[in-house]
Design brief:
This protein has 260 residues and is an all-alpha fold. The protein has 11 helices and no strands.
């Protein structure tokens, strides 16, 4: 493994540790420490990319690796700012989070984490942003559909993101199909908790302008009812997954659930 990438990955692990400590201790200073560690990793990666960017042949795969690491770092920063918003109820941190995901999207390859969050966070800030984001959501659906037909076919997060985008477009059948795959591929309890959290937050945000988003709200409500009461064709898998979520929450203290 290249020395720079190894250093960046070690800094990412340090940032993850700082974030976990921040959540357990409810200490936002640890979140700031994590942000600093990620900034250090980003500086390393960008400096290395600038060093080799003129060579388009020899370093092609290495450039891709650097991009993936940068996308991950910015995505992690977006998640930390989102956590700060949850702890402090401060809209500014959500805006910072949206900016980080937007930056991460510039580097994202064969993934959809920054893509999905660059759509979701602005809607949480202001539900009227949904209209502006519809073209991007439709493009995202096409992109993720291609991914799940290829190397991401067995990644439950890809199917969750595809389901989420179809929810936002009011495509009920496609949304339920995607979340069915998410269930069948063995999503863990914390993955379900994170998924339910995102859907619930979107529902709360959009309900403020319910008359404008009837189709999306209908799909959101149906999907949440499905995941929580197991009344769909995938009821057996969903029921088991929800039971796993409840067991997981009982075993973990509040605030220790890992939100993606």
């Amino acid at each position: 493994m290249n020395k720079v990438i190894k250093q960046a990955q070690e800094l990412k692990e340090d940032a993850k540790t700082s974030k976990v400590k921040a959540i357990r201790m409810k200490d936002t200073r640890k979140l700031d420490q994590a942000l600093g560690e990620l900034d250090e990793a980003i500086d390393l990666l960008k400096e290395e990319y600038n060093r080799i960017k003129s060579n388009n042949v020899e370093y092609a795969q290495y450039k891709k690796d650097l991009y993936q690491e940068l996308a991950d770092c910015y995505g992690m920063k977006g998640g930390i700012y989102r956590r700060k918003a949850l702890l402090g109820d401060d809209r500014k941190y959500l805006e910072d989070s949206a900016q980080m995901y937007k930056q991460g999207l510039k580097y994202e390859i064969d993934d959809s984490y920054n893509l999905s969050n660059s759509v979701v966070i602005p809607i949480l800030i202001d539900p009227t942003n949904l209209e502006e984001k519809r073209p991007k959501i439709q493009e995202g659906i096409k992109k993720i559909e291609e991914q799940v037909q290829g190397k991401r076919r067995d990644q439950w997060w890809a199917w969750a993101d595809l389901g989420l985008f179809n929810v936002l477009m009011g495509n009920d059948e496609a949304a339920f199909n995607a979340y069915g795959h998410f269930t069948e591929l063995g999503a863990r309890a914390q993955d379900y908790e994170s998924t339910l959290t995102v859907l619930s937050q979107l529902l709360d945000s959009l309900q403020a302008r319910a008359q404008d988003y009837e189709s999306t709200l209908t799909v959101l409500s149906q999907l949440l009812d499905s995941l929580q009461t197991s009344d769909t064709s995938t009821s057996k898998q969903v029921a088991q997954s929800i039971n796993n979520v409840m067991a997981f929450l009982k075993e973990n203290k509040p605030g220790e659930v890992s939100l993606r």
